[in-house]
What does this fold into?
Amino acid sequence: MKKLVLILSAMYLAANIFAAEKKLKIVVSIMPLYNITKAIVGDTADITVMVPPGASVHTFEPKPSQVKDLANADIFIEIGAGLEFWDEKMLKAAGNKKLKIIRCTDGVKLMQEQGAEKEEHPEAGNPHIWLDPIIVKDIATKIYGAIAVPEYKEDPFYTKYAVFDMQMDSLDKYIRAEVSKFRIKNVVSFHPAWAYFEKRYGLKEVGVIEATPGKEPTPKELENIISQIKKYNIKTIFAEPQLPRKAADIIAKEAGVSVLILDPLGNTGETYVDFMKKNVDAMKEAMK
Ligand SMILES: [Zn+2]
It folds into this structure.
């Protein structure tokens, strides 16, 4: 009997400790948002990513089980502007009235794409703002603002947020220095993911292989891209890990150029800075 009481009281204690350390539950849509959020919250929150490694956010179909993640979450962080074309349906199914929703594109002036076909997933403008470290500073501010809740006596996030903000300034300087050494400044990317990056750093997109990600170019579009490659003397075009690279290979063969990988989504096991540097390295190789 005494033993049972001990076990029960130990269990009670364990349950209380667990309750006291109940972690904030955050769901994010894509991996760059995971890495930005992780930099601010460290291990004090549980972060779940909806679009898994290897999947494209543009063709992603959420699993019904992911409704549960949203139902149990405190905060949902997404890019918005139609990137998460499934969000309304998922949020409705989750029915979580306490859920705080952060849309990173709120208040950001979005670039408008030209020529992209919009029937399938209408977007309010180009949503790929997370590939510009200066806009990412604003994203980090939004995330920090959402988690710095008054329940905390001391703000455990401010230092990490401030460090991340400074890292974005250094990354911006680093990219500027690297891009200034590029001999070629014209880009043919796989889909219009790099528009904000290119604008920020003075690169020019002279062609995209898939204006609508996941939809192969028509023969006429292929012809256009190949003539742009020749006109601008492009040596390398880009494919992406999350989308089939067939179209890039066909163009490369026709135009006599090589294919390198740019990764607009990355992985959870890396920092945002590493993720961006990896892409800058690929560009360096392509644009020298
Ligand atoms: Zn994209």
